[in-house]
Each structure stands twice: as C-alpha cells, then as structure tokens.
Automatic annotation (TrEMBL):
Claim: Glycoprotein is one of the keywords in the record: no
Region span, Disordered: 151-232, 247-270
Purpose of the protein: The coatomer is a cytosolic protein complex that binds to dilysine motifs and reversibly associates with Golgi non-clathrin-coated vesicles, which further mediate biosynthetic protein transport from the ER, via the Golgi up to the trans Golgi network. Coatomer complex is required for budding from Golgi membranes, and is essential for the retrograde Golgi-to-ER transport of dilysine-tagged proteins.
A Pfam family recorded for this sequence: Clat_adaptor_s
Keyword Cytoplasm in record: yes
Keywords: Cytoplasm, Cytoplasmic vesicle, ER-Golgi transport, Golgi apparatus, Membrane, Protein transport, Transport
Membrane topology field: Peripheral membrane protein
Residue ranges occupied by any MHD domain in the UniProt entry: 271-512
Gene3D superfamilies: 3.30.450.60, Mu homology domain, subdomain B
Stated name of the protein: Coatomer subunit delta
Compositional bias (Basic and acidic residues): 151-175
Encoding gene per record: LOC113523186
Family statement: Belongs to the adaptor complexes medium subunit family. Delta-COP subfamily.
Compartments (UniProt record): Cytoplasm; Cytoplasmic vesicle, COPI-coated vesicle membrane; Golgi apparatus membrane
C-alpha cells in the first residue's frame, strides 16, 4: 500500500479529520501524528519529511496542515500530486480554514477523501468529479427511503384501483336495484367505522379515444355526483388512515432472466431468487415556449438476493446512453471492473451480497438545461383571449423519446377562481374537472400513440390562469438506456436466472 492515511491536523499534531486507508490501530495513527510536529524544523522549506518507516508529505493550510502519511517506497511525485488534490478539496467544503469549520464538514471531507483514494491507491479523478460523486449521496438511508416511498406509492395506486372497482360495482348494483356487495362487507373488513354508499364519488366516465367535434359544457356541478367534497381519492386516504395498506406492493412489471426489456404481468410475489429493480425519478421545469429551465434525472439499481447460493454473482450492465450520464457504484463494488467491462461485483470476491434486503449497487444522474432533447414528453399550452372575456385553450403533447411507454398520463391544468364555465370541444382520452383544475387523462403514450390534443373554452379567464401545468405518469420503461444483459456466478461464469423490474416516474414535471 502506498498511502497510509490522510489527515487535516493542527501544527501541534492534533488530528481534526483523519482517514486511514489501511488497517491500523488508533494508538498507531495517534503515535504517527504525534511524531510529526517533532520532525518539523523552523525555516524548513521542504514539503516532506521521512522517518525509518514512513514518509510525511504535507502542505500548510493557514494555521492547519494537510498531511499524507505514506510508505517510503511510494513515488514522491505522485504523492505530491495527490497532496495538491487533497489541498484543493478541503477549501471546497470549508468556507474558513478553522478547526470549527473542519469539524463541521468532517463527513463531507471523509466522503471526498474516499473518492480520491481507494485501498491506499490514488483514483483517476479530478476536483469536479469528486464534487459530483459526493453530491450523489451514497448513503444506505437514501436507498431505504427510496424503496419505502416506492412501496407506499404502489400501495396507494393499488388501493385507488380497488376504489374504482368498488365504485363500478356500486353503479352496476344501482342499475339493477340491488344493494352493492361491497357495502355489506365494509363493516367487517375495516373495523367499526362505516362507509356509506354516498362517500365514494364516481370516477368520470371514460370518453372516446378518438377526437370528437362536439361542444360539451363542463361545470363543477355537472361533474360532481354523490355528496360534496368526497371522491375516490378521499376514500383511498380514509383506507390509508385506517392502516389497511399492504406492506408488500406489486411491481409494475417483472421480466425474467435474459429477456431484458420484455414485459410481463408476473407479480412481484413471484420474483426470482435474484431480483433487479431499476428506478428512475425525474424533476423537470419547462417554460411556456418549450425551453427546458431545469432537468435532473436520478436513477438507482437495487439488487435483492433470496438464496444464499447466489450470493456471489456478477450483474452485467449495458450502457447505450450517449448522453453525459454520471454513473456511481456502491463503495463495496469493484469500480474498475464496472468501468472496463460493465460488470457489477464486489471488490472482495469471497464475500457474498447481503440476503433478503434491497441493496443499492449503482446510481446514475443526468442533468442539463436549455436542451429540448432531454425531455421525455413535451407539453405545449396555447391560451388565447376571445370575445366576452373568454379564453380559448389548445393543449398538445408529444412523446420525445420513442423507446418510452408512459401509462396513466395525467395533465393537470389550473382553472381561474370564481364562477367559471368550461366547454370542451375536442379531446383524446378522458377529462374531468376537480375543484379548480381540469385533469386530462391519457391511458397510454408510446411510439404508436405519441401525440394528442385538447381544446376547451373558459369564461371568464385570461391566459395566465392556466399555468403552471403539472404532468404525472407511471412507466415500466426507463429514460436512461441502461439495461441488465445477464447475471452470472462469480466463480465459473455460469448463467443465473433472475427477474427484473423497471419504474420511471416524475417527482416534479411543470410547465411554468
């Protein structure tokens, strides 16, 4: 090993932040640091000093020292280059080079040190890459929170679908003049709280998917059936508050080993012993002219192993994305193997992956602005003022990435406050008015059905009333062109059967 430790210390040898890259006792590193001030000579102009066993390479930082402890066999020129990078990293995270500020930023400094040196050897990184890697938060807590939020969201979607099924049963029973079966079963299924038939608002009827030229008035009173202020969402919220949410969600899509990207309706309960999950989140803000003001895509690949015989495996990942995608592997993953071959495996080959837990092994990030090619879906809203204070609004969408398939696309359009009248002239999919919003729903957007439009008139209104628009969807295809090609045993390279799940959704998608 070349580099033993990196330390920010005082001139008296007191360590403020110290990172050891080889195994050693606390007493040993404290002894090395205590010997450092005694070796310093006043007026000395050198940047290193040697003892019988180690070499100290240092650089002053005001009243502190950036100190590297190396073996005497290390290359002094490389040590000095590494020292310069360490000395630039410290001011990057510390606004003032004082003891209090160093202690306050200790965790960020340690993370940055780990990106510069691995197992005693210098990594081929620069300051910009170190800053980017540290900002990507490689904590297990982030992984746990991401998995938990996904489970809660999928459970809420399942309950919403169940609410729609119960509503359809109630409507069919009402047509036949019979009480719905679901109404009789609520008392025993959800405790003592009773749910009346009027507590669930009917879902807006599905309209033809082909454009129809007709004038259909939409008012708040016309779109509200049932008691005021209750709808399917409030029903789902009531079920959630009573705690009746399944702990294990059903994934949107599971594909089996070898057929990467192929879809199947196989539930998550039938996962293979090796299960991969690709999850992507998107934050995008676009202007009214279609310009991208803010874009950030973050992705996470988690691995779950349920059988100990598959603990030592390699996951082969193919990256066909030509954009500036930032990739980061888990600290325990062999970075060099991933960079050269696209193989995810542990640094210590004899150690297995953890069993029965979702382990984040790869992260990716894509950012940018003023690049219209990054957006997966473009939405254009054209409001124009008409006669008598009315406003004619034309909205169209277009899929920009043909490899994507977006489902349950909802475009939420704000409406002006007050007593307004909405008349819809042309649409694809379906629409419904909820409060001060018009929600336009499209079941599927893909390469075969990539465009659609909505036209309506609002009286009274002005163009600014219809912004910002928000867009939501779910998808079992990913925006980044990252795919798992195969999974093999680490010892002999034999193939391993695996399942795969892909999820892509927006955290924030606004047209302002």
């Amino acid at each position: 090993m070349v580099l033993i430790a990196a330390t920010v210390c005082t001139k008296s040898g007191k360590a403020l932040v110290s990172r050891q890259f080889v195994e050693m006792t606390k007493a040993r590193i404290e002894g090395l640091l205590a010997a450092f001030p005694k070796l310093m000579t006043s007026g000395r102009q050198h940047t290193f000093v040697e003892t019988e066993s180690v070499r100290y390479v240092y650089q002053p930082l005001d009243k502190l020292y950036m100190l590297l402890i190396t073996t005497k066999a290390s290359n002094i020129l490389e040590d000095l280059e590494t020292l310069r990078l360490f000395s630039r990293v410290v001011p990057e995270y510390c606004t003032q080079l004082t003891e209090a500020e160093i202690l306050n930023q200790a965790f960020n400094l340690l993370f940055a040190f780990d990106e510069i040196v691995a197992l005693g050897y210098r990594e081929s990184v620069n300051l910009a890459q170190v800053r980017s890697f540290v900002e990507m938060d490689s904590h297990e807590e982030k992984i746990y929170q991401a998995v938990r939020q996904t489970q809660e969201r999928e459970a809420a979607n399942r309950m919403r679908e169940r609410a729609k099924e119960l509503q359809r049963e109630r409507l069919e029973a009402a047509k036949r003049g019979q009480p719905p079966r679901s109404q009789m079963s609520f008392g025993s299924g959800f405790g003592s709280s009773s749910v009346s038939s009027a507590s669930v608002e009917p879902i807006a009827e599905k309209l033809p998917t082909t454009p129809a030229r007709e004038t259909r008035p939409v008012t708040r009173s016309a779109m509200k059936l049932g008691s005021r202020g209750t709808d399917a969402d409030s029903f789902v919220s009531r079920l959630r508050s009573e705690g009746d949410i399944a702990a294990t969600p059903v994934g949107p899509a599971v594909t089996t080993g070898g057929a990467s990207g192929a879809r199947s309706d196989q539930p998550a309960l039938n996962q293979k012993d090796v299960h991969l999950r690709f999850e992507e989140r998107l934050n995008l803000i676009a202007g009214r002219d279609g310009d991208i003001q803010s874009f950030e895509l973050s992705g996470l690949l988690t691995l779950r192993i349920s059988n100990e015989q598959f603990g030592r495996i390699h996951v082969h990942v193919d990256n066909k994305d030509t954009r500036s995608l930032q990739l980061q592997t888990h600290p325990n993953v062999d970075k060099e193997s991933f960079r050269s071959q696209g193989v995810i495996g542990l640094k210590q080959a004899q150690r297995p992956f953890p069993l029965h837990s979702d382990v984040g092994v790869l992260k990716w990030r894509l950012t940018g602005a003023n690049d219209d090619k990054l957006a997966p879906l473009s939405v254009n809203c054209w409001p124009s003022e008409g006669a008598n204070g009315s406003c004619d609004v034309n909205i169209e969408y277009e899929l920009e990435q043909d490899h994507l398939t977006l489902t349950d696309v909802n475009i939420n359009i704000p409406l002006p406050s007050g007593n307004t009248q909405v008349v819809v002239h042309q649409w694809e999919g379906s629409y419904t008015q909820k409060g001060r919003s018009l929600i336009w729903s499209i079941p599927v957007v893909n390469a075969q059905q990539k465009t659609g439009s909505l036209e309506f008139t609002v009286t009274p209104a002005i163009p600014n009333d219809f912004f910002p628009l928000t867009v939501t969807w779910t998808s079992d295809t990913s925006l980044a062109l990252l795919t798992a090609t195969k999974v093999t045993q680490a010892e002999d390279g034999s193939p391993v059967d695996y399942s795969q799940e892909i999820s892509f959704h927006p955290d924030k998608y606004e047209i302002v």
